[in-house]
Each structure stands twice: as structure tokens, then as C-alpha cells.
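tool_call: predict_structure(chain=1)
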Amino acid sequence: MDPTTTFERHRGRLFGLAYRMLGQAQDAEDAVQDAYLRWAGAVHAAITHPTAWLDRVVTNLCLNRLGSAAARREYPGPWLPEPMLSESADPAADVEQQQAVDYASLVLLERLAPVERAVYVLRTAFGYGHRELAELLGLTEEGSRQHFRRARQRIDGERRFAVDPAQHRQLFESFLRAAQQGDLARLEQLLAEDVVSRADGGGVVTAARRPVVGRSQVAAYLGRGLHRYAGDFELRILELNGQPGLVAVADGAVVAALLIDAADGVIESFHIVANPTKLRFLERQLRGLELLGQ
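tool_result:
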């Protein structure tokens, strides 16, 4: 098999790895393209395990990006991962690329140190053992275990028991209906007492710079906002990152995406992405599926 064909067989897997590591689809695509350039210049006869070689290259590229992400530390307001459709415009080509990536997990991964994140992703999503991780990341086996243990404890400690997919969708649709009707009393019934809403405008569009916390505060913030501006946007419920999400479209462009986390029969948190740069990949997916006008 020629080198280009070999790489293309791995492209979807590599995108999935980079997306989990970086939380941004466009950056993941850039990392995969950089990996291709390195692969093209490699001595392929000396590479006995292409999958491990490519995973190592992409992981290191992602670690470099995370390590130098000074802009993220100075980000105006909450930083949220980039949402994407659960199905690709070309399912036959991108089966691995479009594996469902739970949005809540992406949010929690942001709280890990870069190496912890790499160990956790490679072990849980790609099945690497600690001996392999030690070799791939330049760690000892015990070091790999420690990083994984810390990452798992932090993620498991912050993750609430989620509702099943059917109840998740029912809660989402009930929230949307109550918000569009301006029914704040009903909306409050759907929210946890300590519900949190985070909005990522990237300093480009108007969005709350601080999380909105509390049942009545979030109900007023989202309920009145959606009720007031519903007529300005076309609102679509689509599957984003393996769960229902709300996509707002205006003049043929995606202007916002909203996802929820739910547990114990109520909504625990809202994630609103309005930063235009974080909606371009989603917009491209919609156009590829002919769900959005040119």
C-alpha cells in the first residue's frame, strides 16, 4: 500500500484523536494536515507500526498546541469546545472521524493538564495500555498510571449520572418549548437548583462574559432571550456530538449552537457557542449535507 493511501485510511482516526485533545475541529484538521506533511517526509520502510507512529505525531502536535495556547488563557469569557454534527457529509469516508464525542466530556477534558488529557484520551478512546502510553509519550509506566488516575478521578468526580438519550431529548425539547413560549415558571421546573449557563462569544459577538448561575437567573436569561429573538433566527434541533442540540441560523449562516447536560431528570448546565470561528466547521458540515444554503 502506498504511503498516501495508508495515511488516508488513518485520517478519520487521527481527526478524532486531535479533536478530543484540542476541542476544536479546525485546529484538529490543521494538526492532521501537519501530521500528513511529516508522514510524507518519513522513511516508511523504517516504520513498522504506522498507527502508533501517526498517533504519536498527532498527540505531540496537539500537546505543542495546548502548551503554547496563551490566547486560550486570555480568552474573553468562558472557553467552550467547538460543536460538530454527529454525522458527516460523507459517512462512508469519515466513520471514525464522526464517532460520537460527548460534549460534556469535552468540557471536562478542558480542565485536565495536557499530558493528563493525552493519557486519558488515548487510553479510554483508543485502547492504549500503559506500557504503550509510556513509550508513546515518553513516560514511565507508573507515570502513565498516575496521570490516568488523576484524570479519571477529576472527570468522574465532576461528572453527574446522565439521563438516558430519550429523556435527554425530552428535556431538551421541553426546555425549548417553554423558552419560546416565555413560560418561565415551566422553564424553572426543568432546571436544577444550581444550573449553570456558559456562553462563548470569543469577544466577537455579544455573550455573557461570566457564567449565569441559579434556577431563576438562568430561566430569565435564556427564557427571555429565546422568546425575544426567536423570530430573528431559524432554530433547528440537530444531533451535535451525539446528543440533541439547538442550532440558530440567520441569512444562511450558523450564528449559535446550544447544548445541555442533564442529570436526575433536570438540566444541569447549558453550553452556548456563538463565537463565529467555532461555528465554521459546523456550518461546513451543514452545507455538505445540503442543510444550509450557500
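agent: Residues 165-288 form a domain with the Nuclear Transport Factor 2; Chain: A, fold (CATH 3.10.450.50). Proceeding to next step.
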